[in-house]
Prior knowledge:
Elements: H1 2-20, H2 33-38, E1 57-58, E2 71-78, E3 90-92, E4 95-99, E5 105-109, E6 115-119, E7 141-143, E8 146-150, E9 155-160, E10 166-171, E11 186-188, E12 191-194, E13 206-211, E14 217-222, H3 237-244, H4 252-256, E15 266-269, E16 274-278, H5 287-291, E17 302-306, E18 313-318, E19 333-340, E20 343-350, E21 356-361, E22 367-372, E23 379-382, E24 389-391, E25 402-404, E26 418-420, E27 425-432, E28 435-437, H6 465-474, E29 476-483, E30 488-495, E31 503-506, E32 510-515, E33 519-524, E34 530-535, E35 545-549, E36 552-559, H7 563-568, E37 582-588, H8 616-626, H9 628-631, H10 652-659, H11 678-694
Parallel strand pairs: 1-31
Antiparallel strand pairs: 2-37, 3-4, 4-5, 5-6, 7-8, 8-9, 9-10, 11-12, 12-13, 13-14, 15-16, 16-17, 17-18, 19-20, 20-21, 21-22, 23-24, 25-28, 26-27, 27-29, 29-30, 31-32, 32-33, 33-34, 35-36, 36-37
Helix pairs in contact: 8-11, 10-11
This protein binds calcium ion (CA).
Amino acid sequence: MKTLKWAAMLAATALLAACGQGGGDKGPGNVDGARIAAASGNGEWLTVARTYDEQRHSPLDKINTTNVGQLGLAWMYEFDTDRGQEATPVVVDGVLYTTTAWSKVYAFDAKTGALKWSYDPKVEGKKGFDACCDVVNRGVAVWKGKVYVGVLDGRLVALEAGTGKEAWSVQTTDTGRPYTITGAPRVVKDKVLIGNGGGEYGVRGYLSAYDSATGKLVWRFYTTPNPNGQPDNAASDKIMKEKGAATWFGEGWKATGGGGTVWDSMAYDPELDILYAGVGNGTPWNHVKRSDGKGDNLFLSSVLALKPDTGEYVWHYQTTPGESWDYTATQHIILADLTINGQPRKVLMQAPKNGFFYVLDRANGQLISAKPYVPITWASGVDPATGRPIENPGVRYENAPSLQVPAPFGAHNWHPMAFNPKEGLVYIPAQVVPFAYTPDKGYTFRPGAWNVGTDFLANALPTDAAQMAAIKAMVKGELIAWDPVAQKARFTIKHPYFWNAGVMSTAGGLIFQGAAQGEFSAYNAADGTKLWSYKTDNGVIAAPSTYEIDGEQYVALMVGYGGAGALSAPALLPERPRLPGRLMVFKLGGTAKAPPYVRPEQAALDLTGVTSTGDVGRGFALFHQNCQVCHGPNAGGAFLPNLRQSQMLLSAESWKSVVIDGALAERGMASFSRFIDAKGAEDLRAYVLSEARGAAAPAVPPAKGGAATAKR
Ligand code: CA
């Protein structure tokens, strides 16, 4: 009997050991909660943020401050899309999984770069219209042999890790509403967690949990009340009745759904068994138009703590009560154990758009501290007793515009931070951008369109060069090394542009970050000294990841410019043609050479004799209501086609074929016939023609060509 028992125990131990070593005998992609927990001490990168605490800090140190200068390209792959690349590569058992714009998934041999498989969910091009901030995707989740991706059109798809074949696919959203998914799923206890986006247009936000094996919905938590006043038969019903519903007023939110989308951040504490998720802005932004200017509007702009098995509410912390500025709390959440006032504290840290760095007790949501991490003008501080921001007068722009910082871009956007436990620093890709919030007095809900209740006409750029220079001088991009205990910066790395890139920290004493101007750099984690830099030849916004194979450490990065900044603030960013995304993987002594990007020639536009019957003034208004968020204020966009240089300007017919008939829908330019009639389209053309003729030479001449490539 005794012998038998020992034999059974030995067999069980051997099985456990096999699981712990990457589970090769269980097939590819064999990740579970125990393995993710163990990864905190090894060189794996198993989830989009490496571990459940989402610190994005690797214990690997083979690449370190003494040898990082020898880092070179090991291999690379060029993708078939030139839109923004925001994914962090996940690496499991020697296979690197990543996603590109349009929610495509790729699996590579992480050592050699050989493509194992790819998957294209074939998102309809016109769906790009519903994506406020580019058709991006931030990466996959891997769990028990499957790879999960959230698709731009609202599907959640499970793929077989070994082949890329679809295992299951579910529609997680109402396809009649402008929902999108850009965030990476997380998997906790066999549940795939996914939210969605659409908070600028008019959707009701929620977080869902699907069974990882079958795709069956397990629970859903709505972040805003049901507009029809009824329960949803969802995990949120109880708390919405007890706390949430009473914080909403008026009718404005009922048409839109209120917003509150859970579009990016999550984290999980296995000991407390609590799942954390960040909630987005209200729809419309303008609190007066959404909720008669009354009420906190729970759970907008909040960190939500939920039980992962059931979605049951545990606590919430609302960073921006009565949100009115697109100040989301969807930014990266990091869990860590800190010593504060001599006491060990289990904290949750977030640098949401509103500019305050929050340190919360993650067991109960109590505020430990909150301080501004960049200069802000909308509030003077956070009341430590109530946890509420102390707003400055006039910032709610009820009757008059308020020029303030941060802008809707946020003091920090989705770009992942990183936490180095040895240095005790959080590295924040931060930005300082002003914005004139102006009441849209004539606001009415327009289904499917942007519905923000803020008048964008006020954000047309000044024609005066001195005023434009003054705006540019206010705008800053920086990587801040933030001490969350002292609540102050230890050092700051200044960037030439505001739209930042994600960060990674390593035990090699390094932080890695890309940049808008097209480089990827390593800095000393202790003091910010730049130790290595590589010209990527294309802008970077994504965060890197790192892994070890056969004793060699690799650093992987998605290269490719885009996102909200590139679309809607082109005048403040480097001007370049759209270039195909690339995955670039580095190692010490790497000698691979990236081929130079091909920038096709573009013929200059000859507007001689080109006329329009349209009304320039009306076109100006229509443009800034309908077009500027993707094509830039004053039609000066460079990322999505610069309309001032568009061949479509040459004739009313070709212009109408795109704007009204949707000729370029497959490339992401949907028909605007829902919002603009043929007369309006010609007014738009008249206005853009006037800009094309009157435009002074841009400060940086556009690189040759690129605008008319066949990529999407
Ligand atoms: Ca938003």
